Structures are given as C-alpha cells and as structure tokens.
C-alpha cells in the first residue's frame, strides 16, 4: 500500500526497478488512474536524473539507473540535457582561480548562483538548454553521450522481437498457454465509445489480439508495430498472415511485455516487392490486476 509518507521512496524504487511485484503493479495502476500521482512520479523521475548527474546516488543505485532506468528515448534525452548543464556548471566553477581579490564578492555571488542551479536542478536546465539541444541536436548528441546506455536497450528490443517472431510463427491453437483474447476493430478519428481493455491476472501468460480490418487489398504478409499512446515504439512483429477467408490478423504477445497502460498497434500490409502500406490503427488498454 502506497502511503503519503513513503510515496517518494516507493517512486524512487519503482523508477530503479527495485520494487517487489505487488507494489510494482500498484504503481502501474496508479499511473493510469491518478493524474496527480503520475505528475508527482514525473517530478521524482527528474530528481532521479539530476541526482545521477550530480553524483547523488549510491553505487548500487547508479548501477540500477544505468541498467533499468534508461529504457526509453525520453529519459535518455532528459539525461543528455542534464549532463550538458552539468558541464556548464563545472566550467563555471573553474572560473574562480581566475578572479582577482577585488572581485571576490562577484565570485561569491557566482558560486551561490551555481548552488541555486544545482539545488533546483532540472527545471533550470530546461529553461536554457531545451530548445538548443533537444530540438536541434538531441538525436546526434544522444548517440555520442550515451553509446553504452543505448546498446543494451537495442539488444533487449532485439531479444523481445526474436521471441515474438518465434511465438507468432507457430500454428494457432486453442490452448496456447493461459491466454486472454481481445478482438480489436480499427480506431476511427472522433469515434465515441469506451476504449477496449484487457484485465490480466498472474495466471494470464499470453494476450491474443484479433485485429480486424476491411482492406480491399489482400496481402500475403502483414507487419504490426506496437507503441505506447505517447508514440514510443516498443517492438515490431513481421511475417504475420491473415486468417483464411477473413480479414483478421492474430497477434500473440506474452503479458510480461505489456505493463498497465494504453497502447496503439499499427497494422501494415507487405506487398510482394516488400513495400509496406498502413492498413489500420488499433487502440487498447492493459490493466494488470494484483489478484490471482
């Protein structure tokens, strides 16, 4: 149970992937259902990034940060900006030996300003660095500053996609693990109605999504790209086929790859010459229950 007096500790452990499963699932659910909680978690995330940059983490926390925290582009870009600001602060400190005795008062004010910047951390960073670094140079600088952080992420995604490709290449069976099935129809702009959702418990090892579509063109193969609703791409599954005689593609995803949250799937048809054409979009929600 998340109490107000231990919320910050739990958030920090959640971001570092140090929580036990029941609390992990409770935080996942709160992020979806409690907007204020999600905003506080965002602040905790920024504080954690700044503590990493300004050496405020223990050795074990730094290891967990590098291994478990840097798993998406947004976090890596925020870290990149904070590191750029840290260089700015470090260079400012080096100015002190160059200042004469008649300017000590100015130097003291400079040091106090630097201390203020460090204490207020990430928001000051955004104020002067976001436009220059994030808009114009983020992709290039991210690759230069974080080569070691991005490599494990790429390897992990490749591993997941290999597992998904193998799973979805198998023949469909009625009892393929303990699965939850959901039929999805294409999302239409300005369409009303409730978002389709899947509630999973610990026994549900597999999510089976039946993607219906109404394309007049038949393709020999299909591809799906799974994203968060914010647009972050999670994984791609190739070489899918439609059900015989109907416009349905069945996609199987282990539940371990889907946390509580909202997702979007884009379905592509692949022509004989390898050209991909978008066929449909699907939106759905995953809710992981703590009950067995």
- Compute the number of strand runs: 8
Average pLDDT over all residues? 76
Helix/strand/pairing class, anyone?
alpha/beta
Q: Provide the helix percentage.
A: 40-55%
Report strand %.
Answer: 15-25%
Strands across the major sheet, in which order?
2-8-7-4-5
Descriptive report:
There is one protein chain. The protein has helices at residues 7-15, 21-33, 35-53, 59-69, 73-93, 104-120, 122-145, 147-169; strands at 179-184, 197-200, 206-212, 221-228, 233-240, 248-254, 261-270, 276-288. With 292 residues, it is α/β, with parallel strands linked by helices. The protein has a 5-stranded mixed beta sheet with strand order 2-8-7-4-5. It has a 3-stranded mixed beta sheet with strand order 1-3-6. Helix 3 (35-53) crosses helix 5. Mean pLDDT is 76; it is low at 93-104.
What's the short story on this structure?
The protein is built from eight helices and eight strands.
Based on the model shown, name its key terms.
single chain; 292 residues; alpha/beta; five-stranded mixed beta sheet; three-stranded mixed beta sheet; 8 strands; 47% helix; elongated
Helix and strand arrangement:
Blueprint: H1 7-15, H2 21-33, H3 35-53, H4 59-69, H5 73-93, H6 104-120, H7 122-145, H8 147-169, E1 179-184, E2 197-200, E3 206-212, E4 221-228, E5 233-240, E6 248-254, E7 261-270, E8 276-288
């Amino acid at each position: 149970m998340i109490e107000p007096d231990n919320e910050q500790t739990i958030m920090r452990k959640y971001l570092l992937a140090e929580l036990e499963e029941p609390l992990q699932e409770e935080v996942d659910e709160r992020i979806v259902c409690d907007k204020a909680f999600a905003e506080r978690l965002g602040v905790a995330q920024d504080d954690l990034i700044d503590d990493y940059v300004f050496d405020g983490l223990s050795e074990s926390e730094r290891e967990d940060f590098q291994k478990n925290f840097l798993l998406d582009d947004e976090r890596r870009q925020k870290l990149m900006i904070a590191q750029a600001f840290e260089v700015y602060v470090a260079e400012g400190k080096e100015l002190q030996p160059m200042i004469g005795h008649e300017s000590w008062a100015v130097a003291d004010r400079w040091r106090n300003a630097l201390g203020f910047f460090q204490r207020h951390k990430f928001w000051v960073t955004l104020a002067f660095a976001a436009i220059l670094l994030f808009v114009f140079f983020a992709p290039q600088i991210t690759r230069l500053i974080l080569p070691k952080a991005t490599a494990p992420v790429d390897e992990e995604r490749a591993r997941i996609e290999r597992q998904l490709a193998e799973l979805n290449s198998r023949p469909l069976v009625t009892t393929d693990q303990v699965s939850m099935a959901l039929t999805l129809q294409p999302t239409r702009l300005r369409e009303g109605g409730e978002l389709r959702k899947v509630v999973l418990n610990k026994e549900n090892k597999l999510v089976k999504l039946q993607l219906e579509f109404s394309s007049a063109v038949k393709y020999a193969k299909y591809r799906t790209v799974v994203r968060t609703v914010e647009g972050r791409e999670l994984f791609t599954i190739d070489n899918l086929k439609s059900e015989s005689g109907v416009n349905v593609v069945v996609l199987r995803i282990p539940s371990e790859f889907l946390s509580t949250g909202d997702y979007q799937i884009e379905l592509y048809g692949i022509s004989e010459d390898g050209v991909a054409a978008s066929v449909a979009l699907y939106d759905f929600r995953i809710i992981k229950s703590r009950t067995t």
